[in-house]
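Below is how a single chain appears once it has passed through the pipeline. First comes the sequence as given, then the structure the pipeline wrote out for it. We keep one example in the README because the format questions we get most often are answered faster by looking than by reading.
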Amino acid sequence: MDTPTPSSESSDRSRPPTDQDAVSVAPGDDLHERPENTHLILYLAAFALFVGLAVWGLVAYQHNEDDDLAREKAIELAMMFSASGFASPDIDATARVLGTDGGAACVDDGSALRENLLHQQMVNGAAGPGQRPILVARNLLEGERLVLTVYCPDRLPEFDAWVDGLKLEDGE
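Resulting structure:
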């Protein structure tokens, strides 16, 4: 009697029928039949894009030139501060903050906020109802004038007119 063993039954079930006329409805996996370089065009396009962006970045990058100019202006400002009798500011910090164009010190936004912030700093130090304006020594505004002289000299007449409108006392 030919009785199939359990191992031969399981191997018979896992194999598809070998009928030559049968049609397979399973999704075809032709991965092993595809050539290796099917994504060659995609890889070449990505590589060309990467190289193009890298070249553009190197051409557009002028950080060292800007750093040198910002450092020169910061040194000039530090020398002017020393000549005026003020403590010399840190050159690297000044170059980072003011850059080549003076940063926020030279922005002419035309708003009252900038002027009011300066007025708010010229008070007695109290908060709330006790806050009162004080007479500020003229030389306290000299630092800002020096910054404007180095970074945006075209704004000096406007600044001088604003300072002339303040009630200031002479001296320290």
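Helices lie at 6-14, 40-60, 63-83, 91-98, 112-120, 142-151, 156-164.

See the next section for the split statistics.
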